[in-house]
């Protein structure tokens, strides 16, 4: 298991589940205190690799056996957003790119792309992603690509 301080610093002391600040000085036994959440990344021909992400202790505990969901931020104007976790897991296994949402204008698409890359930096910190914005049919499509 990694040092909690290094995981926290890498994740900017932000919970990957709720996207709220984690108290770096908080007790690891307190609800808002820091906790490391491990998950396994399957790498083709390399086996499984454990990666740790920062979470509030309460968020990590509540996740339990339920599949976590990363909610799109409500102020982002993204239409028909794809489920983030499932899309990322598919891309991590097979590579390539997938449409993850649509926006009505370029400004909304840029804001959504920036937010998504920030969230993914905490969800899958060892994986690199890019978001391509493609214009067509009066909309801007966000294409998430595994780098």
Topology:
Layout: H1 4-10, E1 34-43, E2 47-56, H2 57-63, H3 84-94, E3 97-103, H4 106-123, E4 129-136, E5 139-146
Antiparallel strand pairs: 1-2, 3-5, 4-5
Task: Explain how this protein is built.
The protein is of the alpha+beta class. Helix content is 29%, strand content 29%. It has a three-stranded antiparallel beta sheet. Strand 4 and strand 5 form a beta hairpin. It is globular and about 50 Å long. The mean pLDDT is 86.
Quick gist of this model?
The chain has 147 residues and is of the alpha+beta class.
Please name the defining characteristics of this protein.
two-stranded antiparallel ribbon, 2 domains, 29% strand
**Overall pLDDT confidence:** 86
Number of helices: 4
User: What is the domain tally?
Assistant: 2
- Strand content range: 25-35%
Rg, Cα atoms, Å: 16 Å
Shape: globular
| Number of E strands | 5
Query: What assembly state would you assign to the polypeptide chains in this entry?
Result: single chain
The CA-CA distance between the termini, in Å, is 26 Å
The unreliable regions are none
Helices and strands, in order, run as: HEEHHEHEE
Structural class: alpha+beta
Largest beta sheet: what is the strand line-up? 3-5-4
Helix share bin = 25-40%
Largest sheet: 3 strands, antiparallel
